[in-house]
Amino acid sequence: MLYKRISLLERRIINKETIPHAEKIFSIFLPFTEWINKEKMNPSVEIDKKLFVTTDQYHLIVDYQLGDRLNDQDAIISILDRIYTKYSAIASLSTDKGFSTQANKAIIHELLPELEVVMPKKGKRNQTEEQEERSKSFKQLKNAHSAVESNINELEHRGLDRCPDRSVINFSKYVGLAIGAHNLHKIGKELISIQCSKNKKRQEAMRKAA
Length: 210
Hints:
The chain is built from six helices and six strands; from the N terminus they run H-E-E-E-E-H-E-H-E-H-H-H. By secondary structure, it is mainly alpha-helical.
């Protein structure tokens, strides 16, 4: 790491070279982290690691991927490919604005014409796009998508709030464990709810019998 830093400084300061973004290191202790800018107009800087998460209608995480220097719009096709390999019966797809491009929409509509796609556009919309995003089905699926944010936030409470181990391999393990814990928590919560409902019905039946 020392030699790497010396080399970067020499190239940048002495040789006046522009260092390619892929070669830059933003953390000595966690060199796999990346410079993430969520908004172009936002001057704040976020040093982090992207994690793409896909959930189903039951809020279970069915797919995830670490974004190794991968932009949102470049990840959507590979995400869909993995999901369709595992699950064939998919009625709709909802994404954040970061995944939205005309090219992505065109590819998805061509390959999966039966799939209802909710991909809000970044920036100004034309009349057709405005009509599409005002439709009832679009709004319903977009509102349902908001639950994904709470699922991502919940990962922090399942062990992903801090990774004390070094290296991207150990970080990947923490991600997998957190997602496993998240899904187990969701399943356990649903099983408890079903059992409570059964107990309540049994108690009501016993009261009526008495």
